[in-house]
Queue: 4 jobs
Job 1
Amino acid sequence: MNRDAYEAVIGLEVHTHLLTRSKLFCGCSTEFGKGPNENVCPVCMGMPGVLPVLNRRAVELAVRTGIAAHCEIAPRSIFDRKSYFYPDLPKNYQISQYETPICKGGYIELPGDGNPRRIRLVRIHLEEDAGKNIHEADSSLVDFNRSGVPLVEIVSEPDIRSAEEAGAYLRELRNILRYIGASDGRMEEGSFRCDVNVSVRRKGSSELGVKTEIKNLNSFRFVEKAIEHEVARQIDLLESGGKVMQETHLWDPIREETRPMRSKEFANDYRYFPEPDLPPLVVPPEMVEEVARTMPELPAAKRVRYADDYGLNDYEVGVLTAERETADYFEAVLPGLNNPRTAANWVMTEVLRAANESGRSIAEAAPPASEVGALLRMVEESKISLNAAKTAFAAMCKSRKPAAAVVEEMGLAQVSDESAIAAACDKVIAAEPGKVAQFRGGRDKLFGFFVGQVMKAMGGKANPKVVNEILKKKLAG
Amino acid sequence: MASSSDLNRLTISEAAERLRRREISAVELTRACLDRIAAVDSRLNAFITVTADEALVQARTADKRLAGGDAPAMCGIPLAIKDIFCTRGVRTTCASKILENFVPPFDSTVIAKLREEGAVFLGKTNMDEFAMGSSTENSAFGPTMNPYDLGRVAGGSSGGSAAAVAADECLASLGTDTGGSIREPASFCGVVGIKPTYSRVSRYGVVAYASSLDQVGPFAKSVRDAAMVLRAVAGQDPMDSTCSARPVPDYVGALTGDVRDLHIGVPREYFVEGMQPEVEQAVRAALRHYESMGARTIEISLPHSSYAIACYYIVATAEASANLARYDGVRYGLRASAEDNIALNERTREQGFGAEVKRRIMLGTFALSAGYYDAYYLKAMKVRTLIRRDFERAFEQCDVIVTPVAPTTAFRLGEKMSDPLTMYLSDIFTISVNLAGLPGLSVPCGYDSDGLPIGMQIIGPQFSEETVLRAGDAFERSGAVASRRPAL
């Protein structure tokens, strides 16, 4: 059987919580981790007679998401009721958007080897989240804290061709959402969720095969695994003469396989109709302008700029733009430095290590970026050695004192005084007549030995450039 | 001057004046109403819940405010509230078994406003379950009887609120109107009732039947009283996004008694064959009376009127099917015992809803189903636009439109229960007004040979409540119809 004769056709539906303080249609807090049913009121509990009032901040964040994803922002969109019975859905309908979403079209650009790939979007719409069912041995409980938390659903075209590409899309999308402050993208808290639509077809065909939908995917790794599993399952099925059924599958993370849901679990006619309790959502041009004006530079633009302006390679660009915090930090280290790569290397190694090892954010784990910039300037100006800088950095992480003070306190300043260095060179040459003779006899490799001895004699603080120059002259005799 | 035992017969205008002069107290006034309820309500069944103790506490508080002077207009006025308004701490049943023991933790906006004004709440009145019906026979608490003839219906769905005013159990009451639920019972019970422009009054905390049609309004003993209550409850509400931000005019100040500038439209489609001749005669007589007062009448046409009932029963039931989905036994209200969640939903709804509610949920669910949406819901929305345009065109020629409220006077209990379609026709003259979102006033304009009240409907353009009320008040004050009281 030839799996390579097939290609996968994948579309993703991402649901992500918006970072608002209050819920989409009431004033309740969206804070995660409160006790069961602490963040509730008659509105998000679906009491008789209650009415929704739209959260303006949620609209702004949805518009922000749309602009970041190059969507068309609808000047007027409509909320609809999506009806289905489920105990965590208090009204037994969800207020969502159906025919006229707030954002249409757009795309997400994936990083690639000089040839970025665009995954087109169908739409982005606003909707409310449901509560959470908690099943116990002989009963079920419902926590409505999440009920009414604002979500955007971001629907891609079936432009994705592999599990790996799906992963890249999700990472880039989450990155964008975090850059623009729309979402914290925390999959483990359920604030970033993904459903996958998968079909396969023979390569070269432009028709779409029958798709299955996979739900219950709560990590990027599961998304990739589930797609791999499902693509293989569908190909095997077709190759053995079977047919793919249009159905919904659940990912079982323990068995690492998908299994179809019972038909009762998903066989819904959602009976969408316009929500009569909310007037049409009007996004005035001023709001779009304001959001566009305050839009930060997004990862795709940063990637181009870092490569073009700083001469960084794909790998470096990738690491530095993967999180907005890293990129912002990097850019704050840069001013006053001659070589951007100095800053890049430092952020990629020392700064990220400090953050990773402590499990904290860069802001918490590393010194202020301006001080790291000051430290690296001293390296560029040969005032301290690279090793001394590392020592100083470690101390700065702990004490959070300015670079200059730490270098001063720890006596890390480099000696460039030629007479002191020349004196040390003379001593070493005098002490090693044999090695001097060998060197002069052609053993060039011994030069490193002499440098080492001089540095040692000067307590590691000598400027290596000056040491090299003086040693060369003196050894040449 | 009424004796102290007759205080419950006062209008709000009269009572407010006497409260202000401290001739009577709010407690006396409230006691008179409670006594009347105790005396007659076992025969009428206008109330589902009477809150006598709470009412007396509220009356005492009102008396203190009145003694301090500068009390608001509704201070100390005893009111009856349709059991569709959420009332904090007082059960709100919507006349349904499914909410039989539901005690809301919050007040509807309208109740909060009246509470702030110092109004006294006597209790919660009977209605058709979830406001679905035209006779108050679809109540889990039994029907409300018409005070003029205990063998007849009070109309519906706000039958309890209409009967309570007609029987002097209260000074005024609140109802809701989705297709005629204020105007038809007002007509059947011989009281004044107004359905304001859609969005004029907040719907927050009013148990929803059909969200794009539901509107709150008062029942009262005079147009002036209705204007007073409307002024107290109308206005913008941050909790209701569909509620209008327009300032609330001085409705009482608009009642000049003068109609000489008015052009009254008379739609030819509203005097149909099969209607009770005495109803047509009474409305025609009222129109002649308006002419004698200096108004002009013009025949107009509302050509899409015949589609109104079909359109209504798709739009209203579609919205209702979603609005009533929340009664599932999970969070509040009736919970049937069941082994799993699906059975819990099914059994709770099977046991909790009455036949008419189930019928409308099924109708609405069907109209919204995949494959039928375009043919039913979407088509109905288009028809709704046509009906709205009919009125817009008509109001280019006239200021108000006058029609009968209902084709008949109050019918007999049980007469139409077996035939829903005939029952639906009771609302034939009122439904279009909801579909178009217009204000409609029901004013008594005569009595039939059985002594049953006949109502006249005065319809105006959106937000023309001042004109509509002025027209109704002028007719009422002209003495064209001698007011009667039911002999209970």
Job 2
Amino acid sequence: MSWVLILEQTLNGVQFGLMLFLLAAGLTLVFGIMDMINLAHGSLYMLGAFFAAALVQATGSFALGVLLAIPATAAVGMLLEMSVLRTLYERDHLSQVLATFALILIFNEAVRIVWGSDMPLSTPAALSGPVQLLPGLAYPAYRLLIIGVGAVVAGFLYLLIARTRVGMLVRAGASNREMALAMGVNIRRLFTLLFGVGAGLCAVAGALLGPLLAVQVGMGENILILAFVVIVIGGIGSIRGALVGAVLVGLVDTIGRAFLPMLFGLFFQPRVASAAGPAIASVLAYLLMVAVLYFRPQGLFPARG
Amino acid sequence: MQRAAILAVLALTLAFPLAVQETYYLSFASRILVYALAATSLNLALGYGGMISFGHAAFVGTGAYVSSIFIAEGLTSAWIGWPAGVAAAALAALVIGAVSLRTRGVYFIMITLAFAQMMFFLVNSMKAYGGDEGLSLAGRASTGMGIDLGSDVAFYYTALALLAAAVYGMHRLARSRFGRVIQAIRENEARAEAIGFPVYRYKLACFVLAGAVGGLAGVLLASHGKYVNPNVLHWTQSGTLMVMVILGGVGRLWGGTLGAAALLGLEDLVSNHRVDWLAAVIPNYQQHASLGVGIVLLAIVLFAPQGIAGALERRRRA
């Protein structure tokens, strides 16, 4: 294997990791502050992708469609928070799992009724070609865009959480909700806002990944579990942990899938390697989580401490 | 009163195959029985043990796959394949439980989910046994005792007998010393620990037992459809089983059975029985059955958290 291939797969891993981060960021704050398991987060990701696909079709512009999908998804997220999720904060995890599972069913069918089972969404023509990064390394321009957007949004989010008053309140809520309440923080309003931001981030991820994966009903269900893996690895409620966890999971998953079958080929017979390689590669992220939970049950960067 | 009700239900279920002639409904009833067994096994861990396992489909899937692999390899005797499926599921539960039970709360939910996902992907990559396309079986296992499981009536009675045994077993278990300890741990783990019970070992035993019975349900599930695919291990399947338990009643003897019957019945009702006035308002609503299921489910969580068994109990007390 050549260094070009390694570099290319590393970039792919970072790209996937940054998108995972956009999903995990909202999820970890919801989880950390309200102690709430929200399975419907993946539905917002799906909704964002469908909004983007529909709006790109309607406006004829990729950028405009994606940009409009963000406030649309954020609005749905805030409405969802105010109507259903708010009543679940005081309930046990079991009820939360069940209610948000029901929301998945409802969202899936609602999307199917409105748009059908899938929507076409392709990379914009201007970005469909490769970019010559280094001699011998041509990388798809669209993936570079994803990395760029992911990095900018991650930076923006870091500034929002670490440097602004709203961010301070969020951190206070994440580390000790009761204390923040006692100090007079309006957690309810803060939380509706936060939920909107989280939904918006879902839309960014859904819209950008749409052309690479596929815009279809159920697209949020598998990536949701990976996002949960990310926040458990990073430490529930921690944005920094979500970023580290997301990139880690993105790299492990992508590089594992690319190189593990090859690596196994060095040690085992081809028949065994071609069967075991992909199998182990697809569970690496989960193995990582189990290992982290076993040795550091609070995750890498616990928010409460 | 209660005994009379149970006897009446038992008589009805026993007479059911004689009353219906259509194989569709017999097969549907068997499916409910199989899911009732799976949900009942989850209820043991979830309701009695207080362990919110989000990976129960892993055990159902293990039972389904192991028993199917035996048939695919030519060992068709149910006396070998079925116990092997149950034992494999118990072993999986032992390994997963031993690691997962070191964590608490949300982390337990997440780690059981992660393990189930691992099993899902592993099964997906088993190319020798169908991979992501699943494994079709030539027929059901044979008993060698004159009972032909291939007949839908015999299969129905087998599933009914196993479900009845499981529910009766759970009834006895809940009143046994083991069951009392498990429920005490659910109510207050620190106190149970302080009294001197080896909490971890009790929870693990309960988890393994639930996994084994779940495996048995999986064995029946694969046998029922003569087909198994990786989706029986998908996390949404674990979610569906949880839905059944909560719908029926968490920690209630008949919770799993009632929940399975209610959920599958509701799905069948919406998709196979056209309501004319509803179809007039919403054309082809039947293709979107899970929308109705989702709404009913959400309403139950929000307004009737005790489930069906809880609602029945409240009426009796009133």
Job 3
Amino acid sequence: MAGLTRAEEFVLVAVFELGDEAYGVSIRRHLARRAGRRLSLGAVYGSLERLSREGYLEPRLGAATPVRGGRRKRLFRLTPKGRSALNSARRREERLWGKVAALRNIRSGAR
Amino acid sequence: MTPMGRRQTPAVPPRWAERLLELLVAREEREAALGDFLEEFRGRAAESGRRAAAHEYWRELLLSSPHFLRRRFERSLLGRGMLMDTKSGVRQALLGLVLIAPALLLVVTGVLQSAGLLSDSQGRSLADQATGLLRGLYHPAVILGGLLLAFALNIRPLLRVDLKRQPQAIVGTVTVRGRLWNLVSVGLALGLLGAILGYAFVENFRVVPTHVAQRNVPASEVRAWDASETVVLRLYDVTSDTRTIWVLPVSPTPVGNDP
């Protein structure tokens, strides 16, 4: 997972959670809703582009919709490398937050 | 449908903003990006009205444009070349450019003087007024040594030569890497070396008439000798306080004593 920024980790999580509907707009909305991070579309594209180039994501073109003026979406899905990176990130986060949870228990006297 | 039963036309984003977006986005990403922007615009227009949506469209475009410009640059030939540079390669190239700097200054000053964009006295004063360490930078050994060192430093990341011994022959493979910074450094070093050596060759092999006289004059008087228009050749050695000049024997007065 080394070399990925925090924003890229968030994008990986969003792509995983959105499944077959992961594209620029939906990823941005997901990040705003779930992580409270309001990124520009350009910033989302930047992360998506880098993750695709590094082999974490696989882009493909979706169907055209009227709300998009007949333009197709660029959909993304996780590759095995992306899944593995996501797993590593999750394990690292758990290790990190596990310590913090223990500290909170001490302070609240629960331990 | 509206209450009147007419079909409501979908909101259209600001025309100029959409054009600008089309221009900024690389062709491969254009369809998806325009679609994303339009989808966001229409969603916002339905919630807050077209005016707020148009404002947001422009804002989004401005915030996203650095990304689009960077992507376009990365996809260009120049960008691809730069992206292949490694950190150590760039460091070597920058060091090379520092080594090249004195030669570059010398040549640029000379070219500007020849083109009449810099007076002879202005150009010469750069070197003449230099003292101490700065004067040392104009020493031929520093200038030529710097160029050769810059070339040697930057040719290695740029070229790789592999020699393989075969039963009947030795096979050599030359690999040229697309590292733009090193290429610029090598190109500048070679170009300046060529210019300086070429100039020195032309000057040294210039036919000097036998009747001219060689004189050693203080550097401060060279300008006056130049003004007398009797100087045939001037040896431009800025590391010394005296200059060697060759003058026509008929030179009447050296120091600008025009009637």
Job 4
Amino acid sequence: MKKIILILAILMSAFVYQSCTKLQETILDETLSVKLSDQEAANGILAPVYGKFIDIFTHTNYFALQEISSDEAILPYRGGTDWGDNGIYLSMHQHVTTSTDPNVKNTWGHILQGISRSVTAINTLPTLKVASSKTYLAEARGLKAYYNMLVLDLFGLAFVKDEPGNPSVILRGEKAVEYIKSELNDIINDLDPTVGPGRLTPNAALGLLARLHLQSAVWKDVYGNPSFLPADMDKVIEYCDKVISSGKQALSPDYFAIFGNNNHDNKELIFAVDQRPDLNGHNRLAYFSLSGDQFPLPEFPNANGTDGPAITSDFYQTWVKANAPIDPALADPRFYQQNISFYTNPADTCVAAKDFKIDRGILRGQQYGLLRVNGAFVKCGNGSLKVGKLFSVTRNKPTLAVDFTEKVDFTVAGSDYSTGYRVEKYEFSSKSASGRNFGEADISLVRYADIYLMRAEAKLRKGDAAGALADVNTVRAARTKPAKPLTKMDLETLFQERGFEFYWEMIRRSDMIRFGKYEGAWTEKSNTDKSKRVFPIPQTAIDGASNLPGYLSQNQGY
Amino acid sequence: MKTIRNIFFITISLIFSFVTLSAQQVTGKVLSENSEPLIGVSISVKGTALGSVTDLDGNYSVDVKGLNDILIFYYIGYKTQELPVNGQSILNVTMSPDVQQIEQITVIGYGSISNRDVTGSVKTLRKDEFNKGIINSPEQLLQGKVAGVNVTTASGDPNSAISITVRGPGGVRTGSDPLYVIDGFAINGSANFLNPEDIESIDILKDASATAIYGARGANGVILITTKKGKEGKSSLDFSVNYGVSTLARALGVFSPNEFRKQVTAVGGTLQDLGANTDWQKEITRSALTKNYNLNLSGGSNKLLYNASLGLQDQEGIIKTNDNKRYTGRLSVGQKFMQDRLKLDLNLGVTYNTVNRPSIGSLIGDAISNNPTFPALGADGRPVQYTGISNPLTTLELEKSITEGARIIGNVSPSFTILKGLVYKLNFGVDYSNYTTDNQSLPNAVPLRDGRLETFYNIGSNRLIENYLTYEFKIDKHSFNALAGHSYQKFFGQARAYSINKFPINNIEPIYNPGLGQELTLANNRPTGSAGINELQSYFGRLNYQFNDKYLVTATVRADGSSKFGANNKYGVFPSFSIGWRIMQEDFMKGNKLFSNLKLRAGWGRTGNQEIPAKITQAAFTSQVGSNTSYPLFNTGSYPPGTTFSRLANPDIQWEVSGQTNVGIDFGIFGGALNGTIDYFNKVSNNILLEVIPSDPVQPAGTFWTNVKDMEIDNQGLEFALNYEKNLGNSWRYNLGGNSSFIKNIVKNSPYSVIPSGNASGSGLTSATINGYINNQPIGTFYLKEFTGIDDKGLSKFRDVDGDGIISDKDRVALGSALPKAIFSFFGGIGFKELDFSVNFNGVSGNKIYDNTANSNFYKVRISKGINVTPDALDYPNESISNAAPVSSRYLKDGSYLRLNNMSLGYTLKPSAIGLGKILTGARVSVTGQNLWLSTKYNGYDPEVNTERNINGVSSYGIDYLSYPKAKTILFGLNLTF
């Protein structure tokens, strides 16, 4: 019996050995606490607030919502094979977007996460003893205000949240405008003027305040007819004056340098997404619109365009009419910049790889470029690259020329791969490792030309057409080979001018609403429903809030 | 006990045969119902002490006192026969099995009981009932064999995932597979590493009263696998060889070259005709050979039982270069000590796999689309390179993925009889696996490829320790069997991935020297990894009570704690209760001629599904330099690691709960020849775990996990199973059987207007979803725009459900589910002397399939561009050649099918008949066909398909996208027993 007890004891020891678990979850691959110095902690809590920029200001998110919904961009179901995406780009253009649109959902999600990250930073920074904490705190609050401005503009509401644990208070209309205004005014003096354009500077805040006062007529009564109060216009002028008198900004003589790889130090930029190739950079805004048979980088025979959006013929015609009888490419330096000499010198068929750059601006007609056969670029005898006429090889239509046409719409013919004039505003990164990643160019959010054009608009809305004209012509004259000065100024002209200056810079939708154009008709768009001035709140968010009746209600008309 | 009695009899009769004086002698042979000699049958002469036993060939000789004596033939499991000698000196006897007497043992978790005492819904499948042919995973053994169990192989890939659903899915997420327990050792995931030849039997616990003993892991059913064990007094060596040839069962019906030439021109496309006639699907497929060898060594004395096996399966896939090799070894030992009070069982299994797999999706995509007038090979015998299309033969040369690794699983379980009826048992097990996958893309000049190597390392381990006591006792007419125990299990998993790009073009494969890669940046080659530990601790108990052999009661309870559960809900308690009534034993049934068995069962139980993602109860913040977590705060210097919350805490998170009621009846009629089971069940799952959007949308993470209390997923069903066996006595025997189940699944009180799943694949289809789970519709519902035809402009028309004049997401409707309304199967066998023949059919009906392959490949635009399509693309003559093909009901197809799953013909040789009696004790040759016939309206490769397209872990169902086609196989087998 003793032996039995001994064996039992041995067996039971295993029981005792293992049985006292508390079932605490052990986490091996995530940190639940980090040891950081206060400075590292401060940097680490502010950086993610800006970090959402790269998610928001991208082709399928903010760009799609601000541009494809407008007369500046249209994205048909290319060739019946590409960009079908469940019809979301057609709906976006026709103003029949629904609450299940994934791009609307993603944009909403990214912006709201930006607000949340601001709240976290605002609550953490005061606990850290660092010299820059005041500036950082001001930036975090300023960004919270900026993100709220974006939500207000897109969805018609703003979220006030000070403590991470408390639910947000939802504001709409005038209350939302006042909230954002007071936040920006509170922090502007604490901002650091030397950290731009990638971070919020006093000039950036002034630019945002000017935009707020200009747009507030719309935001206060989003479905009504905006009434622009003189007091607001005075504020716009005041803030713009402050930016101009700061002496820190300058208009760029080279228009396309504003969107070039080395634009970070371009004084035209006031507030921008600081893209770094080794961190967050991407070439999406550069390759999105190009043809699938355009290969802009000699090092990367797999980096092509996507045959994404084109400009509508309506928008193109505004260029033509404004510059008639001269071709816009010759009349206005903002329209086009030739980099491939073949277009004007057909004998120039060989280009050294280091010299090859594609054209910028609005691309029309037959395209020329690097010829790709069996996955490699054709070379000339001397090792340089052959440049020639492009065909739709990657589209399985090797005899169909890549010839961008003015006509682009949702008909079968208008949806083909090469329809529509394309936009190549941002430069392709030269540091890319795949052709598509590693973007270098900063993405402009507020730039100096807009300070002049906002001031011009404020003056004009106050009746000072001459002052407005002078501001507009200042911008026109600043560029190399400038467009002819304008001779008269009215709202129609100013609206057009904003299109010429800021096309595809993610501001067109807001402009169209402010100028009363959003219910107008253009290619494939005839919807006149004012409810469409704001987007639907994503259905998932409505579902998520369904346990709190009345807390988050869907926008009218959706 | 019976074995002991048998040995006793043999011993006694042996003794007597020596001591008795012989008067006269009777000799003869004793055969089984299959005409096999029976060894060790005891023969006694009635009313005397005389007797004998049969030898190895079934022969006996017995001394009798007179020629009018009566001989009694006794053999365990067979009906005892009394035969008068009637003056004969030779008496040959065929024994017939005693159905009543064969005690079917059912494994029920922490023990086993006689089948007649089962009160829950449990199905036992023994190895001779398994499906036959090339088996890659144990689930295939039981496809169509068990009512209420739906086995779906995701594709024809020999390594395909196999989903098995017991009584319908009870959640929206992935992880609704049953729990697998191998020889008492619960494992993580499927048992696909087992050699099917090593499996003796599979018990499927279906209802909650049976699975509640597995508590938080019981909600999806439990599959108990018992491997082969040695048998007392019988040693044998079995060797089997199988050779199989597999070919593509059904090709997709794309246009033939001539038809293609005609159609491209007819729709107004530009025909590029290079004059060849290429069947691209044929180019990438082949007649694939499978070789399978198994060696099994088994034996035992009354103290030691052993079984050892080695297996090798070398299987070629029907797609070129796809190879699968599986080497397995398994050992099972049982030893008794201390006057049999201490018993030790040990199981050890090892599996080593290598899988070589080309990139299936792109191969199939090219093969079904490429212009059939283009030659595949040039005059030099090399794949031709084209601009615009890619030659799949080049892909086969350049791309491959190799997975290699091993899994070791072992458990040792000593048990000790403390007192009579009171047994203590320990179960200690370890399971370890280590797999490496290399995805290699060779560098190449034409077409230009940079070359890339990605390597994934996966490690998993699982340790189990269980202690339990069982106590069995009887008081008068009351018998009790009680169980109480504790279990602790710890799982560990780790995954890591590394990559490197740009290799020089030479004859060295990157896999053998990754250091030759020339490009490595954090942006393109950031290593990834994750690791996790999951601990489970449980207390469990069970009481079986029987009164007078008529009334059966079973009650179980298990308290399960998991490290995955939130701090506020560490332990869940899962009870069950069931009763059985053996009506046959009642007095009023005495004298009834119809029934040989009649039992009523009823039970209720509550189980859980603890397969929730790890870490979700805890908040997490990460501190890392990522594209959207960091930002250049300064012009120079390194980027600050951004601190972000990636998840919100929810300490309330717990298991999903499933309550199930089951009522069933087991019956046997015609003297036990026809046996059947009918079960009704109602399974209600709630506390559904969902990743939900917070009501305040301003959150660090866009979603958080929670149990939605009110949400329910109901499965209600009826199951029927019938089996008829008849031995005609004149060397003919046959059996017929079948089962069917009807399950109604429904989602209730979901807080979401729709939970989307099933991301559509293919160009132009980004962001469209195929499945959508909405209230009052089943899981697996297809939520789509309804295609109504082609309008006068040649464009697609859809039903405008909300009547707003716009076709949008709001016009989506529920158009059926991928879950079949009925699952059915039937099987049969005929035997004549040494010949046996069996067939197994299985099928489903009432389900739909979304043909995403057709949606993204077969539409009119494509043929107009010189891309091959099926004739379906031209169904509408007035359709425009630029009509887009968005996701819609146009590609939703009927998924019902009936398949001849396998058919087998075998011949059992008598080694003595061919002069090998001294060497062999048995030999058998067989030929088996798999997937020989299929009836379905579905025109994809195969209606049994499930391409995984889940969205954030919400399961997709019934989507077919460039799936590996299914094979048709003929397998020749030879079995030798020494």
